[in-house]
Design brief:
The chain has helices at about 1-45, 60-65, and strands spanning about 70-75, 80, 85-95, 100-115, 120-125, 140, 145-150, 150-155, 160-165, 170-175, 185, 195, 210-215, 215-220, 225-230, 230, 255, 265. The protein is of the alpha+beta class. The strands form 5 sheets. Strands 1, 2, 3, 4, 5 and 6 form a 6-stranded antiparallel sheet that branches. The chain has a 6-stranded antiparallel sheet with strand order 7-8-9-10-11-16, with no helix packed on it. A two-stranded antiparallel ribbon has the order 12-15. A hairpin with a 4-residue loop joins β9 (about 160-165) and β10 (about 170-175).
Length: about 270
């Protein structure tokens, strides 16, 4: 009996100990969840919508978003340099003034790499360029001309074809040269490319270029230098990215077309926002 009582007492003590441990764990879980909830509540209450710059508050977004440029961009004759890159000049043409050429100081370049990467570069001499855009270990390969006509030239690198239309400027890339029915990607498919040229300080009313948002000011001494890029992926159904606001991994369109044909533009995606 003493032995049985001892075993019973030990079992009861063990049960109480286990209950105590379970209670401690449950308390810790509850406290942790409360902590997470408080953090989320603090973050949510700390959000101030007026501190985020919307398209309506951004002049470059209003000027360039989904607005066809007033001028046409035309690539002048293309030539390959010693590295195998294809280069040329881009003319800005005013179609309303009988195709009058306004500017010819924009550079155009196509560079191909061994890994299958094709780089399209449009720049203006003297304008700031972001360094280290591509990794140093990329090996450049030459672009070779396959056919040339007055309005179009076709180049090849690796297993890819690149079709360059001169007027208006357009670049089509076919990732597999044996399948040229649908391009992998098209640059300037809808002629929405727009390049605001850098100008010298003091030209064209520079006193009106300054822009301020909250405590941030930008004098824009070289004028507005916005850039809009028109890129089309014919064979893709989903676009993935990292937007500045919470949404699905597969990014939903920012342009909505109603049944009556009305187009509604939602806030664009951006990687950085003041």
């Amino acid at each position: 009996e003493a032995s049985l009582g001892a075993r019973f007492a030990f079992a009861m003590k063990g049960t109480r100990a286990e209950d105590g441990m379970k209670g401690t764990r449950a308390t810790r879980v509850v406290l942790f969840l409360l902590f997470v909830l408080l953090c989320c509540t603090k973050a949510a209450s700390g959000f101030k919508e007026n501190e985020f710059k919307t398209c309506a508050k951004s002049s470059f977004c209003q000027r360039l978003r989904s607005v066809p440029p007033e001028h046409k961009y035309v690539i002048e004759s293309l030539e390959a340099d010693d590295s195998g890159a294809v280069r040329g000049k881009v003319s800005v043409v005013d179609e309303d003034a009988e195709d009058e050429t306004l500017h010819k100081d924009i550079d155009f370049a196509l560079l191909a790499y061994e890994s299958g990467v094709l780089r399209l570069k449009v720049s203006q001499p003297g304008r700031f360029e972001v360094p280290e855009v591509l990794l140093d270990d990329l090996k450049q390969v030459p672009l070779t001309s396959q056919s040339k006509a007055s309005a179009q030239e076709i180049f090849q690198f690796q297993n890819s074809l690149v079709v360059v239309t001169l007027s208006p400027m357009k670049v089509e890339v076919y990732g597999d040269k044996s399948k040229i029915t649908t391009p992998t990607v098209v640059f300037n498919e809808n002629s929405l490319f727009n390049f605001e040229r850098q100008v010298k300080p003091g030209e064209n009313g520079s006193s009106e270029w300054a822009e301020t948002f909250l405590s941030h000011s930008d004098t824009r001494k070289n004028g507005p230098m916005g850039l809009s890029i028109d890129v089309h992926f014919p064979g893709a159904n989903h676009v993935f990215g990292i937007p500045e606001r919470a949404t699905r991994f597969s990014l939903p369109p920012t342009k909505e077309v109603h049944a009556n044909g009305e187009k509604v533009l939602h806030e664009p995606y951006r990687l950085y926002n003041l």
